[in-house]
Specification:
With 307 residues, the chain is mostly helical. It has one domain: Up-down Bundle (A middle domain of Talin 1). The protein has 13 helices and two strands; from the N terminus they run ααααβααααααααβα.
Length: 307
Amino acid sequence: MEIFINCLIFSISLTALLKGSDWFVNAAERIGLSLGISPFIIGVTIVAFGTSLPELATSIAAVFSGNSEIVVGNVVGSNITNILLVLGLTAIIGKKIYLDFDVWDTDMPLLLASSIFLFFALYDLEVSIFEAILFLGGLAIFLFKSFGNIDKDLKRPKAGIKDYGLLIFGGLIVYFGASYTIDSISKIAHQLGVHQDFIALSVLALGTSLPEVVVSISAARKGKPGIAVGNVLGSNIFNSYAVMGIPALIGPLSIPATTLKFSLPFMVFVTFLFAVMCLSKKINRWEGAMLVLFYFFFIIEISKDMF
């Protein structure tokens, strides 16, 4: 009965977390438009970062609750899930993804750099304050490049009190949703005798990646599957730089040694695979199916060390 209650709390808190993120993103998008930020930049930054807000919220909550080992699994698992599952399903549903923008201009190099830096930063099983600052520096470069140009001729809708209210209210829902999500995960892992990093790599990573899944599949159904690439790029950049950097500044992170054996190297591999696939500026359905198969392979492999 106790584990059933904790699973119920996990489901409710994760749902609240995702709904709060949705309100936060919608309000931020409207406020961004009112400031003259173009819809494309908003899509690659505010929307992509907003869909990664659950990862950030749960990671910060994990540090405060003394479960910081969840942070790394959350970041690594979410990045893998975004590339393999989100992008794979989008390519299958959309049949083919065409890239109408140059991801190799800034976004892809920053993503590749983040995966390599993440690998070496975690290699000694700790993240120093200096490394955390470097992570946030990479995020600052991305934001500076993206928001460098404000379109003065862009039609600006007015952002009212309701938008700012939803921004604050959504943020509060995200905060409390993340706290209860982490607390329930810790209890479930203890009751089942399962490593917390396994739950972070699988269940939590999949749960916090649901916004990316919804946004990307919705775009594919509307005939705009290319949006998924921008969403995955922005989300993974945010995960690697912010979701690792900010919690590391708040408190010391516990790095599970098992992550270095398979999950982290696998994340680097799929990131480079994603980069290679983008060279042709299109991702076919069979490539999407391959990505989904890789995701199931990942789940099977991490399941071997779950107890």
